[in-house]
Amino acid sequence: MNYKHVHVIYFSPTHSSAKIAHAIVEGMGAVSYSESDLTYEMPESEEAVEKELTIVAVPVYGGRVPDTAVKRLQKFVGKESPVVPVVVYGNRDYEDALLELSDLLVQQGFTLLAAAAFVGEHSFSCSQYPVAAGRPDQKDHDDAFLFGQHVLEKLEAYPSLEALPPLKVKGNRPYKEKKAAAPSAPLVDASRCNLCGHCVDICPVGAISIQNGEMISDPVLCIKCCACVKECPEEARTFPNPFAEYLYKNFSARKAPELFL
Questions:
Q1: DSSP per residue, 67-106
Q2: Residue ranges of the 4Fe-4S ferredoxin-type domain (predicted)?
Q3: pTM of the complete model
């Protein structure tokens, strides 16, 4: 099979998933590609992805695919399109997320070709408790690039989608239960915040607003991606979290990508 066009779909609040997806595409040497960025809004209508090699990349939250990403991905329907699901996790464990994403894409009509789990800086990583800080780094990029080459080689080795062998990925069914966390959101240091509104623009769920000259974060809407914390130009936002110290102490050793071909 020969697919010269690649379609990239991603939900990537802190850009890690997007970086890995783009590195995979680079390795494929695609003649052309298009992308659907689901980070900031739900697609208005259903979109058919027809006869396109597709990369779908999302972060892992608590061992699962974020609900926000699931809802937005359900707007895409695959038609004769091989797909490569990719999850990016914060160096702890991706648990059932890759299986969940694979199952979702099959339900949406895509055909599984390959899959992968890469590491990105943990949402709760901070200067005091760094967890996979700076990842994906150059080594991750190189691994993703090589993975893209291998995926393309596999695709070209089979005459049709029907000829592809079943793909087994790590994970369990039923998936790990999503435990409801107490509503919380990053804190704002009013002495540093200049109300530039950058955090408002980059919040994937519209949880941040400026009201009466104050920056307000809705703890019910917040998904704790911490994009606003990592990208605040004044470093005015923090997300104090006791889990960060636990992650630092137990999951600082570098983990390598896990690839399924």
A1: HHHHHHHTTEEEES-EEEEEEEE-SS--TTHHHHHHHHHH
A2: 184-213, 218-242
A3: 0.96
CATH of 5-175+254-260, one of 3.40.50.360, 3.90.1150.10, 2.60.40.10, 3.30.870.10: 3.40.50.360
HEC readout, 39-60:
CCCCCCCCEEEECCEEEEEEEC
d(Cα 94, Cα 66) in Å, to the nearest integer?
A: 12
pLDDT tens sequence across 4-62: 799 999 999 999 999 999 999 999 988 789 999 999 999 999 999 999 999 999 999 99
Reply yes or no on whether the pLDDT at 217 is more than 80. yes
Query: How far is Cα 237 from Cα 82, in angstroms, rounded to an integer?
Result: 41
Least confident of 95-109, 176-190, 221-235: 176-190
Mean per-residue pLDDT, 146-173:
96
Query: Is the model's pLDDT at 157 over the cut of 90?
Result: yes
CATH topology of domain 187-238: Alpha-Beta Plaits (3.30.70)
CA atoms within 13 A on the CB side of 256: 5
Distance CA 41, CA 216 (A): 20
Quick check: 84 and 113 in contact, CB under 8 A?
yes
Instruction: Write down the pLDDT at residue 180.
Output: 79
CA distance 115 to 65: 14
How many CB atoms sit inside 10 A of residue 81's CB? 23
DSSP-assigned letter for residue 66: -
